Every structure is written in C-alpha cells, then in structure tokens.
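ok, trying the design again with the full structure, not the truncated one.
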C-alpha cells in the first residue's frame, strides 16, 4: 500500500485493490496503458513532485485537459498530496476557461497538448502551468491565493464546475467521503468487479466521467478504456478491441452510436457488452430501441445532480429490463422526497420537485454562500429543481425542470415529456419544446422539430400523433421545422433559450 498525505479513504481502498490486481491493466488510452502497480507508482511519483514544489494540504490544483491516463494519475496525485482538485471542462473559448480558472484561484494549473496553447500567456505570471502528458516537472506553487473556507464540515477534495447555460458555471464543492460513496455505491448497484472493462467517453471533467464511471471501476479492480472523444466509430472500435463490458454515456451519444451502426457498412462485434447506461439527459426510447438491435441489451438509466449523488439508477440484475421512461430506483444510503411548491410531500404518482440528501451531498458552492443557502433546505435537503414522479413500485420518472415548465391556461406542461413523445414520431430526428407568449392562455406550447433526411414536413400528422399520446393541453399548437436542434456545447442538452430565440421571430 502507498501511504499518502491525504487521509482520503478512496485512495486507501484503491491501494488495497491495486495490491490484489498488481499486474492487471488498470487504465488505457490511445497512447499508453498502466497496470495497477504502475498506476500506484506513477501516482506516488507525481505526488512527491507536487510536494517538493510546495503543495500543501488543501491547496487547489485546476485541471483543464481531455480524458487520458495522465488525467486520472494527476488527479489522484493531487489527492495523495492532500490537495484539492478543480476540474474544468476544456471549453472551446479561451475566455471561458480563463474566467473559470481565475474563479478557482489555484496554485497550479494542469493542461495537455490540446489545452496548453489555449492557456499559455493568459494566466497570471506566477501561476505554474504544467503539462500532464509530458515529463511531469513542477516549479514552485503560486502564492497569495484565496484560502479554502474553514467552516466546511468536511475536508474539500473536489470543485466540479457545472456545464450549465448560465454565464457563470456553478462550482460544486465535494468532500472525499462523497466521492468514495459514489464509487462504492455505483460499483455495488451495477455489479462492477475486477472483470469489468468500461469505456470512459464522458469527460473526466464531469462527475459522471470521473467518479461515476472511472473511480467506480478502478475501486473494483476493473479496466478503464479512456477515450478523448465520444465519436461513434471510436466507441465501436474500442468495444470490439478491448471487449468492453460496460458502456455509459449520455442519450445523445447513444443515439449517434445507434445511427452510426445502422448506416456503417462494417459489422461490429459488440457481444462483450453486459450493460449500456444512459444519464445526464432525458431518455430517448426510439434511439435506445435502435441500439438494442446491435447490442441485444436495453439501455438502463441513472439520474442525480452533481450537488447530491448518486441518487437514482437501475440494478441490472434485479431489473434486467428498465421501465419505459423511468430512471430507476433510489440507491442505498441516499434519500429522496417529492414536494409541491409549498414544500409538502405529494402523494405517490403525483409530480413534484425532487429533494435529495445523503453521503454525496455537496459541501456548498465555491465562493457563493448565497447560492448555497438558496439551494439547500434548513434541514439539509438539496433542491434539485427537477420535476419527478414516483410510482407505486418505487420507480422514479424525471419529467422536466422547474425552470422549463410551460404554464398554459393555468396548467403545467413539461417540455421533456412532450419531446419524449415527439421523438418517437418516425420522421423526427430530434425535437425541442418551448413556451412562447400567448395573449389568451399565457403561453403557447410550440415544438421545433429536426426532420430525418428525406422526409417532408407534415405538421397535421405530427399533431395527430401527439394527440393520441398526450392530454390536449400538452399537445403543441404550433410546429416549426429547424435545420438542427441547438444543444449546449458541453452537455449536449437542448438549449431552450436558443430555440426560443429562433422561433420568436417567426410569424405564427
């Protein structure tokens, strides 16, 4: 076992796993692979380099890089040295990245070959910038940085910057206990063991890629296949080459993979897969059914917020076939309430806002005590702002966001619920539903649709299809064709604000 300065239970347990699986491949990417022994050795080397550079307990290190073996080694090395990691998505614009790095106010910034040119010369002169994919040479750490709040109830290990549509991403503070609980619980519920081979095509800058997938698999002694991109061809190649057993991704990536498999002339061997999992956005049942033709597997689901995780998912053994539209059931050690606008618990089957708490609850938002106070109830429940319902068997259905809710004639309409129906229409590739001003009913339910290639727009047929599946007040009264449904650049979720802008100028 490799001793660390971190007092972080995950690293202690990882060392035990590594001792048992010393010569087994722990993680691989397109450039190199590490066994568990090599992984622990390289973590130790980088930890000592950081310590010699002056990294102290609680010092923040920002990492702006793409998925790689070096990414996970460098993150673990910071933790081993007792530091705090700030994971920042490698955005397409320098200004976004620089602003986020400045907010984290780290003593060191980690980059790679992609992000290093973006940041060099744009940060404060005394802030060391270190390439993680080259010889790991660290100069003296920066001084005069913002201290970590002393009032936190547990030591801060991770600041995860959300990838929302607001001008300032939320900076979520998480303890080591929260991270360990995530890895332990996901491994427990999904049945991850040393035979697992998982693809991490989700960015490690996200909790989904870093803790939910990568850390869970390493804790169990499995093998992580790290991909820099979530391109369908790379995923298919990796599954076949490494005999991947577990593919987690967002629904959009799985939809693109299904389309690739349908249209590509090659026949791919995907028979090694035992579990395909979607998370981070609403289910796409049409795409999932298309993917099942090639994998023989249904797509299971997971749902939580980075502020409190894990929360809802499926156990693929007890639930080999997910319920249509459901994200699954509550995981061990986490709690869920569903409340109305007054904070009162709703009856089973009724829709309300999800409140959650458990070992994965955040410590708060970095440098934002007001938002922290607004996001938590007095008795410690996180307000997800997601609308859900729970059926009589305990299955949870995510029906939309409070902020997206359309109010038409006093009735609430969830865009996600309507989109799920429209996306089942054979000629629609993707839809986006928004509320636009209506002089009589307050808001009009409007659908923007992206058609599949070669199909002719028939709004009457689409409306008839929706009317058979939705209550009348939820059926869109207006349909508009757009070339492509705009999406958030990092999460790939529908950008409803941009959809509204596109449709607002069109005549009714």
């Amino acid at each position: 076992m490799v001793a660390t300065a971190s007092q972080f239970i995950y690293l202690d347990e990882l060392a035990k796993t590594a001792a048992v699986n010393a010569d087994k491949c722990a993680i691989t990417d397109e450039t190199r692979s590490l066994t568990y022994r090599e992984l622990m050795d390289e973590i130790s080397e980088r930890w000592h380099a950081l310590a010699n550079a002056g990294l102290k307990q609680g010092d923040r290190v920002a990492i702006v890089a793409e998925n790689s073996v070096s990414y996970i080694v460098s993150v673990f090395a910071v933790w081993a040295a007792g530091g705090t990691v700030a994971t920042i998505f490698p955005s397409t614009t320098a200004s976004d990245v620089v602003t986020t790095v400045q907010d984290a106010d780290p003593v060191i910034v980690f980059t790679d070959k992609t992000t290093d040119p973006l940041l060099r010369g744009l940060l404060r002169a005394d802030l060391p910038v270190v390439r993680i994919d080259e010889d790991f040479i660290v100069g003296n750490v920066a001084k005069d940085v913002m201290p970590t709040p002393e009032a936190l109830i547990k030591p801060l290990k991770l600041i995860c910057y959300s990838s929302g549509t607001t001008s300032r991403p939320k900076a979520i503070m998480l303890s080591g206990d929260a991270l360990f609980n995530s890895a332990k619980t996901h491994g427990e519920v999904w049945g991850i063991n040393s035979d697992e081979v998982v693809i991490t095509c989700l960015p490690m800058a996200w909790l989904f890629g870093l803790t939910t997938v990568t850390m869970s698999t390493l804790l169990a002694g499995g093998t992580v296949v790290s991909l820099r991109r979530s391109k369908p061809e790379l995923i298919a190649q990796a599954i076949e080459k490494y005999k991947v057993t577990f593919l987690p991704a967002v629904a959009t990536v799985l939809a693109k993979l299904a389309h690739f498999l349908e249209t590509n002339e090659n026949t791919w061997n995907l028979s090694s897969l035992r579990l395909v999992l979607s998370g981070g956005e609403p289910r796409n049942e049409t795409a999932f059914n298309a993917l099942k033709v090639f994998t023989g597997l249904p797509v299971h689901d997971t749902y939580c917020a980075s502020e409190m995780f894990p929360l809802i998912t499926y156990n693929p053994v007890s639930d080999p076939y997910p319920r249509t539209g459901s994200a699954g059931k509550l995981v061990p050690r986490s709690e869920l309430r569903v409340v109305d606008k007054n904070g009162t618990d709703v009856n089973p089957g009724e829709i309300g806002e999800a409140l959650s708490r458990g070992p994965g609850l955040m410590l708060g938002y970095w440098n934002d005590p007001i938002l922290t106070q607004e996001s938590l109830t007095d008795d410690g429940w996180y307000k997800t702002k997601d609308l859900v319902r729970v059926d009589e068997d305990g299955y949870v259905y995510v029906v939309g966001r409070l902020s997206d809710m359309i109010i038409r004639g006093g009735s609430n309409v969830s865009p996600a619920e309507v989109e799920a129906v429209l996306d089942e229409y054979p000629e629609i590739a993707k839809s986006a539903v928004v509320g636009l001003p209506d002089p009589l009913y307050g808001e009009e339910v409007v659908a923007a649709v992206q058609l599949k290639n070669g199909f002719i727009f028939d709004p009457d047929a689409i409306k008839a299809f929706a009317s058979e599946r939705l209550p009348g007040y939820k059926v869109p009264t207006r349909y508009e064709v757009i070339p492509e449904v705009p999406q958030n650049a990092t999460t790939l979720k529908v950008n409803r604000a941009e959809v509204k802008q596109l449709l607002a100028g069109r005549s009714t």
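Keeping the full-length input from now on. The first strand starts at residue 25 and ends at 28.
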